[in-house]
Amino acid sequence: MRHFNYKNGELYAENVPVREIAEKVGTPTYVYSAATLQHHFKALQAALGDLNVKIAFAVKSNTNSAVIATLAALGAGADTVSEGEIRRAIRAGVAPEKIVFSGVGKTVRELEYAVSQNIHQINIESIQELETLSEVATRLGKIQKIVFRVNPDVAAGGHDKISTGKKTSKFGISKERAFELYARAETLNGVEPVGLAVHIGSQIIDLAPLKQAYEFLAQMVKDLRANGHKVSRLDLGGGLAAIYQEEIEGPDLIAWGKIVRAIIHPLDVEIEIEPGRIITANAGILLARSIVTKENGGRDFVVLDAAMNDLVRPAFYEAYHQLLAVKEPVKGTNKMPTTIVGPICETGDTFAVDRLMEPVAPDELVAFMSAGAYGFSMASNYNSRPLAAEVMVNGDKWEIVRPRQTYDEIFGMEKIPDWK
Ligand code: LLP
Questions:
Q1: Which of 139, 177, 307, 391 has its CB 3.0 to 4.6 Å from that of 344, i.e. a possible disulfide?
Q2: Residue 408's pLDDT band (boundaries 50, 70, 90)?
Q3: Residues of CATH 2.40.37.10 domain(s) within the chain?
Q4: Atom 5 (ligand 1): residue with closest C-alpha?
């Protein structure tokens, strides 16, 4: 579900024609819909019914403070993977006691910052990290609640690059080692082990691997308890897929809620999840303008002013993003195979190859759909291109929630050494 639709022949974000935004702010520009964010957050809550589940929004999927604040206002916490993300989440209004710190390599400085902020939980991924955290927290006079991210050896997700649950991946800790670390943690100062976490991948449509990972967790809880350990919390990670193509159905959220209820609820633990994409993907679009069209070797190209530095998912994961013309095409217009590219000096800067679509003329506005997750948050300055502007729409109101980067912000801090 998304609040980006054609009305009177023009693409709207909620009640705002996106052309108005493009004309005032320029392109490329990300446009987020507050109503769509709220809808997806509430759909997750509805699927979980009366189960008491804490939702820690995976900030990496969309880092904009306005997005985080919109979700925080609905009660969301934050799943973070760096000091920067923790700082962002707190700045956007997420209470530290709702912040989870995940990630496979946290520096001492990051651990110090997290502990000093009294965050809800740190997800531990190695023995070294456990021992460092114990030292850091002891030094700061704190006791940090931790869970161990276990690796269930279950493959899942929309692409190899975003599958994290296989035993040979860099993520998590094997079952055997997790038992050792749990026992070890109970002997250490500064840390209190309270449970386990999993995260097996992203863009997961098929619920079977998630179910398998949850069953793995449930068995571990029983085994840990049988050995006298206290387990009071489970973090089920993120990974639920968003719909990028109407023809491909998304995960059945109600069925997923039932799986959580059947497998996790009977364990009498606090339950947490870390969803990102399912909340943000369809709440954002990337507005772009065509610069030129050209034909080469029998292939028709449209060159946009947006590039792989703005939206890297097609280049990096062969990801599909629907592309719509902002002016609704007249029904019955012939579709042509069209290759959509950006202006960056790499063949990889390609959004779609030979996609069947209505012709795009030069200087025409287009929109990449479902670009709210891992869009702006993965953007870069490659080719010295400024980071795109970000706008949020709420009903008939809209605001720039991050202006387009200036050239001075890109290279103004650089220095040319005067070696003499
Ligand atoms: N929790 C952990 C520990 C994670 O590593 C991730 C995502 C999430 C939660 C949120 O997953 P989600 O619900 O969004 O699937 N850049 C890639 C996706 C990378 C996902 C990384 N981890 C893409 O554009 O497809």
A1: 307
A2: very high
A3: 4-32+281-411
A4: 199
Q: Is the CB of 102 under 6 A from ligand 1?
A: yes
User: Per CATH, which fold does 34-280 belong to?
Assistant: TIM Barrel (3.20.20)
Lowest mean pLDDT segment, chosen from 62-71, 240-249, 285-294:
240-249
Q: What's the CA-to-centroid distance between 353 and ligand 1, angstroms? A: 26
- Rounded to the nearest integer, the mean pLDDT of the chain is 96
- pLDDT digit string, tens, across residues 75-87: 999 999 999 999 9
Q: How many residues does this entry show for the chain?
A: 420
What lies within 8 Å, CB to CB, of 24 at 6+ separation is: none
Catalytic sites, residue numbers: 345
Distance 212 CA to ligand 1 centre (A): 19
CATH of domain 4-32+281-411: 2.40.37.10
Measure the CA–CA gap between 379 and 365, rounded to whole angstroms: 20
Contact predicate 391/30, CB 8 Å: yes
What residue spans in the chain does CATH classification 3.20.20.10 cover?
Answer: 34-280
**Structure confidence by residue, pLDDT tens digits, 221-259:** 999 999 999 999 999 999 999 999 988 889 999 999 999
Return d(Cα 227, Cα 183) in angstroms, integer: 10
Position 162 scores a pLDDT of 76
What is the predicted pLDDT for the residue at 82? 98
Q: How far apart are CA 224 and CA 228, in angstroms?
A: 7
Ligand 1 within 6 A of CB of 237: yes
Rg (CA), the chain: 23
CB distance 157 to ligand 1 below 6 Å? no
Can you tell me which atom of ligand 1 is nearest the CA of 158? 25
